[in-house]
Specification:
Length: 321
């Protein structure tokens, strides 16, 4: 991180070309292959979006249903880049002091008291308290608490995950846009702080509300759908090697059938994995009505959804899996 007046990061920034890429990645195919070695199975669309976002140094905005691999893509990219992952979890009411920085008030107070006590005891060369110097100390970097956005600017290179940005409110989105446009932060007492290498930024949204066009315009956008049957079976087999091929296919077929129903909360890949793991722990080798009824809590978390599932003819679905 550099302070005001020092040279700007090279070759990066809005629309810049030459971003951070994992070693050996020259196109979406290699990126997809490297993600797969870490257990993340991306399709061509996602691999292309992620590659372009990295190559063009653009934030990657991933929108999609719950459990479709948005958050874990950011974590896997960080692993691949061997860079730390800095996560900003958004929520309603989040503001700059929680996202960017805050002053460490208790420590400032302690420092103030200690300085006062030292001055009163005549330990400061008998000249009393140097107020100007003390103020300067109190508002130095030492007493600044770096929240995730500042941490990301200070830790370069890194992957900054702005998770579930749709949960934050409009004002916060505007503020975020400002930080992501320049990768700089202005702290009145300290000046402008700038990332030496802008972080790789991944934003996720469950689309509980529409994000503003201005933010979308800055980002490379990709909608993440539930995976195809074949890909989801592969995800289960990759993530949970102990699950048999047959069970993986049956669980995936059942989950995909459930997704076609009008459920309050359609299950994501996370639920498929949880269900397969639960069944394996119970020693089940295949799905039947009894085991489905007993383990449905792994996959459906609303009573109404469970009732609906019980009335579904899952055996017919499983016959083909
Ligand atoms: N393509 C994939 N390859 C490997 N694992 C995946 C893939 N997609 C999802 N998963 C796994 O599914 C689980 C859920 O993924 P993740 O938490 O990233 O989803 P999400 O889209 O962030 O969900 P939410 O919207 O609920 O936060 C994780 O355990 C993740 O590893
Ligand atoms: Mg997530």
């Amino acid at each position: 991180m550099t302070a005001k007046g020092e040279s700007a990061p090279t070759g990066l920034g809005a629309g810049g070309v030459g971003g951070l890429l994992p070693a050996g990645v020259t196109g979406p195919t290699q990126l997809r292959e490297q993600l797969a070695t870490l257990g993340y199975l991306a399709d061509d669309g996602l691999a292309t979006a992620a590659f372009l976002a990295l190559r063009l140094s653009r934030p990657l905005l991933l929108e999609g249903e719950a459990g479709t691999g948005k958050t874990s893509l950011a974590a896997t990219l960080a692993q691949l880049l061997e860079a730390p992952l800095v996560r900003l979890q958004c929520y309603e009411g989040i503001d700059a002091t929680q996202a960017l920085y805050d002053w460490d008030f208790p420590r400032q107070l302690l420092h103030l008291r200690a300085s006062e006590a030292a001055a009163a005891g005549g330990q400061v060369d008998g000249s009393g308290l140097d107020v100007a110097r003390l103020e300067g100390e109190l508002y130095s970097r030492r007493f600044l608490l770096a929240r995730p956005l500042l941490q990301a600017l200070e830790t370069s290179p890194c992957v900054l995950l702005v998770d579930e940005v749709d949960r934050a409110d409009d004002e916060f989105e505007a503020f975020l846009l400002e930080v992501l446009s320049e990768y700089t932060v202005s702290v009145p007492e300290l000046g402008t702080l700038r990332a030496e290498v802008p972080p790789v930024v991944v934003l996720t949204s469950n689309r509980t509300r529409e994000l503003h066009d201005a933010l979308k315009r800055r980002c490379f956008y990709h909608w993440l759908d539930h995976p195809s049957f074949a890909r989801e079976v592969e995800i289960v087999r990759t993530r949970l090697p102990e699950v048999s091929e047959r069970l993986a296919r049956q669980v995936t077929a059942a989950v995909q059938a459930l997704r076609r129903e009008d459920l309050l909360k359609p299950p994501g890949v996370a639920e498929t994995l949880d269900w397969a793991a639960a069944l394996t722990v119970l020693g089940a080798e295949r799905l039947d009505a009894d085991i489905v009824a007993r383990t449905l809590g792994s996959v459906l978390k609303y009573r109404e959804d469970q009732q609906r599932a019980v009335s579904l003819d899952l055996q017919a679905v499983l016959a083909g899996a």
